[in-house]
Amino acid sequence: MTYRCVDQLQREAGGIAPICELLDVSRSGYYASRKRLQEPHRICPLATQIEASFHASGRSYGSRRIKAALVHQGVSVGRHRVRNIMRKKGLRPVWRRKFVHTTDSRHDLPVAPNLLNREFDPVAPNLAWVADLTYIRTRTGWLYLAAVMDLFSRKIVGWAMAPTMPAELVCQALQVAIGQREVTPGLLVHRDRGSQYASELHRKLLEQYGLQTSMSRKGNCWDNSVMERFFLSLEMERVWLRDYANQAEAEKDVADYIVGFYNSVRLHSKLGYQSVTVHTLASFIHDGHHHPHHEKTFFLPCARQET
Q: Which residue intervals of 209-263 are DSSP H helices?
């Protein structure tokens, strides 16, 4: 700041020596400052990597996940430095609206007890799944998404989308999950008390495969908070950043988020800032398996209920 004052006074009065003496600064320091300003701006490799990771996440990562992403790339850096660089670069996650719950539990259909009881950390795949339903706004109307998650890896193992939300939609998502996994009787499927999940059609599908049924307590969103968190991540990290022209566009983009980001790349704090893929492979290596036997094939389900 002082050297800028020297510049200004020198332009007005002339003579560097008396001005430097007046402001009690050295002439050598002044000239060194001018030289630094004339040098080309240096590119900071770390700042470039941080910016690349931020945009690769769809502008959704904060400093914690950016730090974790860099560590996975072999870059040793502290979170505070990441945060400072992000602040200087104006890199802020784009989060906006609040999550709105969708299903309606006001019905007279049978409900199941809460067998899951917030035990969100099973020791192996295909022991406990959670399911839920949400909606996505488009210019031509709503698109409804039903999804099923394996709690062990937080992977979305099945989903379906449609312009309406009948019981067939949630059944379709569950059927996709069953079709892709080696499901054995006794697997626990937890969901909320929405009429679609309490329907006879959904109950019969669970009975057909010998799956245990569990439901959240009335008015208690925390009983299915992991699935709620997935929908919130989907909306904050993708849906709220878009303006979908129609349902087909939204459906394609949501499928891309699930397959291309959430299930494969996104770093999950619950998994120690690992991706679902890395966590799954690490768990099977640890258990002495050569490949994930619990999954029949890699898939990209984009099921859609026709109207």
A: 225-237, 247-257
